[in-house]
Amino acid sequence: MTFQHQKQKQLAKLDKSHVGAWDKKIVSLCNKLNKNKEYYTTSSCAGRIILIKSSETKEPNLFVFRTHEKTDFRELKSALQKAKKKREVVFQQEPCILHVACKDLESSQTLVDKAKFAGWKRSGIMATRKRFMVELMSTEHLELPIIKEKKILVDDDFLRILAEEANAKLERTWQKIRKLESLI
Question: Quick check: is 10 in a domain?
Fold first, then answer.
């Protein structure tokens, strides 16, 4: 199967994400990559803030709270109050991540170079028999247990700081998305 045929097939698929659509903050970058003859996106996330049940395996209803936008103290506090009956819950602020199929090794390396210049430090090429894939990931990340044994581990002051830090990290990741888009 040719690269163009793989691209057409991928871009014709329905979105299987929980949200069902591209994150608003990364849609422009994805569109720009998908219009380029050397690339197509296979998955993306512009970064998010979540409260997730601690689990070794993927299971239904793991997310207690999820947003791909900034949050605030009230929103987090409300989500925590609803989640306090859960045994263990983890707070996570995750960076942007993007998977891009590339036409060849040269186009893969070009994309990785641009991503690294834009600040996406965890970026690399994964070659398989079928295609060249580039995984682009930013580094802004927070993760900590927030409920343990059905007990909320943080006070309101810490929760306010956590919301501020997570929002600042999301803003930095969105800046990197815009910078990479300007380089492509």
Answer: no
